Amino acid sequence: MLLQQRPVLSNIDSVGWSDGFTETQWRTWLNLCAVSGQTLEIAGDLTTLGAERCARMRRVLELSDPARRVWCLDVPKGRIEHAPALWLAEGPRDRLVGIFNWTDGPCTIHFHALTQVWPDWYETMDPVWDDGRTHLNPEQVDLETHGSILLGSQND
Predict the structure, then answer these.
(1) What is the pTM of this model?
(2) With left for phi above 0 and alpha for psi between -120 and 50, is residue 91 left, alpha or beta?
(3) For the chain, where are the E strands, in sequence order?
(4) Disulfide: which of 3, 55, 73, 130 matches 113 by Cβ 3.0-4.6 Å?
(5) 3-class secondary structure per residue, 90-130
(6) Nearest CA-CA partner of 31 in 126, 128, 116
(7) What are phi and psi of 142, to 5 degrees?
(8) Which helix (H) or strand (E) holds 27?
């Protein structure tokens, strides 16, 4: 549990589609499922979804690996208002970085802590979702409300 004032324990063993999610929120949910490594199945009536959404959920299952070591870089001491913004997952074959805006407004995420852990992240990691929307610089990224980015790389 991450938030002492408003505890939450996500049920991410199963991923699906909710009509209550915006496209941005759904992408953030998929990114959390992938980087946490805990997604085991797809649930729900998939006959109502388009091929692109089904393909994204399939890709999350491919990315989800419970053998990866997962940790967060920006967990402050004491009470926190939002879940951590920088999630890292490293396994024998690859690594993922999830960058999340859990706030109710746009925000800027800085990469100082990430650069200290993986100095080569900017040169070696690419956006997982090849949709042409992600253009990162090595210092920071601006994310829309509840937005996120998922980066991945293969280990040599």
Answers:
(1) 0.83
(2) beta
(3) 14-15, 41-42, 69-72, 86-90, 94-100, 107-110, 126-127, 140-143, 148-154
(4) 73
(5) ECCCEEEEEEECCCCCCEEEECHHHHHHCCCHHHHCEECCC
(6) 128
(7) -95, 125
(8) helix 23-36
Which tens digit of pLDDT belongs to each residue from 54-105?
888 888 888 888 888 988 887 766 666 677 899 999 988 899 999 999 889 9
List, in order, residues 6 or more apart from 33 with CB less than 8 Å away.
Answer: 12, 15, 39, 60, 64
Catalogue all structural domains in the chain, each as residue range(s) with its CATH number: 14-154 (2.60.40.1180)
- For residue 60, give both structure tokens: 């999350």
For the cut 80, the answer to whether the pLDDT of residue 112 exceeds it is: yes
Examine the pLDDT at 41 and tell me if it is beyond 80. Answer: no
* 100: its two tokens: 């999340």
